[in-house]
Specification:
The chain is mainly alpha-helical. The chain is built from 12 helices and no strands. It is about 75% helix and about 0% strand. The chain starts with a helix and ends in a 7-residue tail after the last helix.
Length: about 325
């Protein structure tokens, strides 16, 4: 038990270091951009109506003082971390005066729900079917499924998203292609709202599942194909052990450990795919919010989205890392 506590403590320190490094890199990348967020905001505001030169100058000075963009970069960096630690990154430029973190918290549940569903389905279904395909290598259905996944795997998320949008939005319009729920549905804990959310999330989730499932299927099939040649599997078969038990306890369990590593490594890639998918379907998640923030030159909102995303992905990898000693006794918790 003491060894596992030490193992967790080390992983916590690694998590903190990774999150701090990632968020700091995001800060410097955004602030080294040639785009001036104050100029962007002033141009956007003055384009809607006429302002006197004095009013425009006063507006520019107010926004400059509010966001501190005239201060040295290191001072801005220290101020950023002070505000981030209390969860206040100031108002958003593209949705002024709404706080940037409020916009992130509104969008976060949509992305988390979409990602959780896509990751769970692709990982479980891909690994289970891939394991069965590696053990039952003559099964025609599993062979056909493998061919289909090999064809879909190289296709980018956004291409699959566009195809699904055209097929199910225009050719056979059975699912909504934009938004998170119907306009005439009230946001509440009701069955009507839940059904509307599921319908609007169907196409974005399907695009992520169709592309992602091939990675797990092909990887697990290759792993199981090697595991079935091991002596302990052969002995179990000769001893008359039930085949379902051999597959679940001997084959899949031993082949699943490397797939946990793959899961941790692909979490960031899945999130980047979600960014594009959400934009295609105008889904109200962090991806759409991030693109709007980048287009609007809203540094504060970009950093708010990036900080939450980096922390969330880092935490997910941290949880996966903690599962290793639990699932595989050969891994020493040190």
């Amino acid at each position: 038990m003491q060894g596992y506590v030490s193992f967790v403590a080390k992983r916590v320190l690694q998590l903190i270091a990774v999150v701090v490094a990632g968020i700091s890199a995001s800060f410097f990348i955004t602030h080294l951009s040639p785009i001036n967020p104050v100029d962007q905001a002033v141009d956007r505001i003055t384009a809607r109506s006429s302002f006197s030169p004095e009013a425009i100058m006063a507006l520019r000075e107010t926004l400059t003082a509010l966001y501190g963009v005239d201060e040295p970069l290191l001072n801005q960096f220290a101020s950023f971390w002070q505000r981030l630690l209390v969860g206040d990154l100031g108002p958003s430029l593209i949705a002024f005066p709404t706080p940037a973190m409020d916009l992130v918290m509104r969008a976060l549940p949509w992305t988390v729900g979409l990602l959780l569903f896509a990751i769970i389905v692709t990982w479980l279904v891909g690994n289970i079917l891939g394991g069965l395909a590696g053990y039952y290598q003559d099964n025609k259905f599993l062979k056909a499924f493998g061919i289909a996944t090999m064809g879909l795997q190289p296709i980018p998320y956004y291409i699959v998203a566009f195809v699904l949008l055209i097929v199910f939005g225009y050719i056979w319009p059975v699912l909504p292609i934009s938004g998170g729920f119907a306009m005439n549905v009230r946001v509440a804990w009701t069955w009507e709202f839940a059904v509307s959310v599921i319908q609007h999330a169907a196409l974005p989730a399907l695009s992520l599942v169709l592309v992602g499932i091939g990675t797990w299927f092909l990887g697990m099939r290759a792993l199981v194909s090697n595991v079935v040649t091991e002596d302990y599997v052969t002995y179990a078969e000769l001893a008359g052990v039930d085949r379902s038990r051999i597959v679940s306890s001997y084959v899949l369990r031993n082949a699943m450990i490397p797939q946990l590593t793959g899961l941790a490594m692909t979490l960031g890639g899945v999130f980047s795919g979600t960014v594009i998918t959400e934009e295609v379907f105008n889904y109200p998640g962090l991806g759409s919010l991030l693109i709007d923030a980048v287009n609007g030159g809203d540094y504060g909102l970009v950093l708010a989205v990036s900080s939450v995303s980096i922390a969330a992905v880092g935490m997910a990898i941290f949880i996966v890392d903690l599962l290793y000693p639990v699932l595989d006794p050969r891994v020493k918790a040190e």
